[in-house]
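In response to the reviewer comment on reproducibility (Comment 2.3), we provide here a single inverse folding case reported in full, input and output, so that an independent group could reproduce the run without further information from us. The structure tokens appear first.
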């Protein structure tokens, strides 16, 4: 290493001596000696640069080159040229010329590569300026290296600017390689519209570059991300006219875009087209279709795609199985999901944490948290590490099922296994304890959460306030409300809704109105819960007219739910305004909101227990729902009538049973199909 450093010292001494003996405007033997030594030095310079970069750490190597090599710059020449050149001019001017290429060019290329890899954009730009000033030959590889450096630095604008300068300023004609590099930088930075403009300018309008399959893949991806599926299809169809054959990535990208837009049939047709065109689909191609069909709920067709996958000799991957399992869980077919897990293992496809997490989440949603815990145990026995998300899901499930002791056991198991709770897990525990009417215990968890360095969010505070309101402790709930602002936590719509609902439920209408006004003054839009709570508070205090005004205001901003309608209908009936309540019921039916048991009970009570009047009234509602093909709503009212010993007429029975039987037959046929597919 010392000998290599001495080489640089020796060359600097030669340059210094030659500067002293060489007359201005002339050339003597010393100048010839300088040229000879410069040529010798130049031959090894590129190799020495690469060697130093590999031997020294990046920061030290960079500083060494600047001090020992670039420090020979002539400040006077820099000022005259107006260029901040890090390289002495004599080093590159003494090399021999070979056509349009000079020996010094390769050294520039090496320096550009080193700067690009190190992300030193300033030096990179200086090298380009120096080469431009000395009229050196540029090659496309230099620019592609620069584009990659701009990609790492997230400088899409600089990449675009450099691409446009390639023609005029740097005398280098870009090919499709340069174009693809630049548009990829723009896409990766999320500037999708700018990528489209760039494509339109260079490819369509100016026709500077001939696109290849990668170009089309990138632009189709952009169009699909922007939801411009029809334009993506047009671009896809023009590929053969440009003598560019779509590959498997082209088809896969377009199929994914179609599936996300719900155009599954067109995506399936593309799969058939692939076979015709001789483009062999891969597992990711089938997975795209399977995922789209599962999200749509069409599991039967998804199973056919899997069968087609086997016929084409394509083996399903863990992504395929995970997608199917997720689809089964969404449809509530947990037993079939577990059966598919067993088949997955038998086919030597190893399930991962996503597989188990999906099934556990599905079991919890069905109220089978205990089965989910058993699945967790099986998962850990097979050597899979559990994440916080799974524990959070089980915690939430046990609390919702009213099994707090099992939830706390899961919490202790998680801690004992060395898993640190995150904000999501803490939030789930706080919410669960508040559900169990233990807000003080939940407050202790919040304190522990803060000690561990996790800042409570709006969800945590909302759960805590809800817990105190539900136990009737309004003062502590309002203390938490003040704590939210004190801890610089943003109060969102959910926080306001919880406070308004809690105050109205505890008879604090005036305080609720103040919070409501504060919410509106800060620009927050009330949600359905906030509207319903305020309407309930106004109606309970006899302000039915004000409640109706608020309801009308709500109808313009959010769709009322059955609870909101029930609040107003009950308020009108209590104030002997049954006819207005019936009008509101008609409006409710017209809005597509089905009455529930509470609605029926309110009207039965308002009709003063007259069985005949109540029975006829409810039957009229059933017939109206039947005409609108709202079978579930009609069945719910029939169920209420039977519980109240109000026997429907034979004609009403005939209407309802005729509507109910058909869906049952269809569901039975679907279940038999699934049994044939997944149950051995």
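Designed residues, in position order:
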């Amino acid at each position: 290493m010392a000998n290599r450093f001495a080489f640089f010292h020796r060359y600097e001494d030669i340059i210094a001596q030659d500067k002293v003996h060489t007359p201005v405007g002339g050339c003597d033997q010393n100048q010839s000696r300088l040229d000879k030594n410069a040529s010798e030095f130049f031959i090894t310079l590129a190799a020495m640069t690469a060697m130093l970069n590999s031997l020294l750490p990046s920061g030290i190597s960079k500083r060494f080159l600047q001090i020992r090599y670039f420090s020979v710059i002539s400040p006077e020449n820099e000022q005259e040229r107006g260029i901040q050149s890090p390289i002495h001019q004599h080093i590159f001017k003494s090399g021999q010329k070979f056509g349009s290429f000079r020996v010094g060019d390769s050294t520039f290329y090496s320096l550009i590569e080193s700067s690009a890899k190190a992300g030193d954009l300033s030096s990179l730009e200086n090298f380009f300026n120096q080469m431009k000033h000395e009229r050196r030959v540029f090659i496309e590889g230099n620019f592609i290296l620069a584009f990659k450096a701009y990609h790492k630095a997230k400088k899409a604008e600089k990449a675009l600017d450099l691409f446009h300068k390639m023609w005029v300023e740097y005398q280098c004609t870009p090919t499709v390689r340069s174009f693809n590099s630049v548009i990829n930088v723009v896409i990766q930075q999320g500037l999708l519209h700018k990528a489209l403009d760039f494509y339109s300018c260079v490819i369509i309008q100016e026709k500077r570059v001939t696109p290849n399959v990668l170009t089309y893949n990138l632009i189709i991806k952009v169009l699909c991300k922007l939801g411009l599926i029809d334009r993506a299809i047009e671009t896809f169809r023009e590929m053969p006219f440009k003598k560019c054959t779509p590959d498997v990535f082209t088809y896969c990208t377009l199929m994914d875009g179609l599936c996300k837009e719900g155009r599954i049939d067109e995506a399936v047709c593309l799969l058939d087209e692939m076979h015709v065109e001789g483009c062999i689909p891969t597992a990711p191609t089938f997975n795209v279709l399977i995922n789209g069909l599962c999200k749509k709920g069409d599991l039967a067709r998804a199973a056919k795609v899997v069968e087609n996958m086997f016929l084409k000799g394509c083996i399903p991957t863990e992504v395929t199985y995970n997608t199917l399992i997720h689809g089964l869980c969404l449809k509530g077919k947990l037993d079939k999901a577990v059966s598919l897990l067993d088949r997955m293992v038998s086919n030597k496809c190893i399930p991962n944490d996503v597989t188990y997490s999906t099934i556990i989440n599905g079991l919890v949603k069905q109220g089978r948290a205990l089965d989910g815990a058993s699945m967790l145990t099986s998962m850990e026995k097979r050597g899979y590490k559990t994440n916080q998300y799974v524990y959070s899901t089980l915690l939430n499930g046990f609390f919702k099922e009213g099994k707090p002791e099992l939830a706390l056991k899961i919490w202790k198991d998680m801690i004992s296994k060395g898993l640190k709770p995150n904000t999501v897990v803490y939030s789930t525990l706080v919410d669960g304890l508040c559900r169990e009417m233990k807000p003080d215990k939940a407050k202790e968890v919040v304190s522990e959460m803060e000690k561990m360095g996790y800042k409570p969010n709006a969800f945590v505070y909302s759960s805590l306030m809800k817990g105190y309101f539900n136990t009737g402790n309004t003062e502590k709930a309002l203390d938490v409300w003040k704590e939210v602002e004190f801890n610089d936590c943003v109060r969102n719509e959910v926080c306001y809704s919880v406070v308004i609902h809690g105050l109205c439920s505890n008879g604090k209408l005036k305080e609720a109105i103040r919070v409501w006004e504060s919410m509106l003054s800060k620009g927050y839009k009330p949600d359905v819960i906030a509207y319903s709570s305020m309407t309930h508070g106004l109606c309970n205090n006899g302000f039915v007219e004000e409640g109706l005004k608020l309801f009308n205001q709500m109808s313009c901003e959010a769709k009322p739910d059955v609870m909101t309608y029930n609040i107003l209908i009950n308020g009108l009936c209590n104030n002997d305004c049954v006819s207005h309540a019936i009008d509101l019921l008609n409006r409710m039916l017209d809005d597509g909101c089905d009455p529930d048991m509470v609605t029926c009970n309110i009207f039965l009570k308002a009709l003063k227990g007259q069985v005949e009047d109540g029975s006829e009234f409810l039957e009229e509602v059933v017939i109206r729902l039947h005409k609108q093909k709202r079978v579930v709503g009609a069945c719910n009212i029939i169920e209420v009538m039977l519980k109240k010993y109000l026997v429907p007429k034979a004609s009403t029975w005939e209407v309802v049973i005729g509507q109910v039987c058909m869906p049952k037959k269809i569901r039975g046929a679907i279940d038999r199909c699934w049994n044939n597919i997944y149950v051995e």
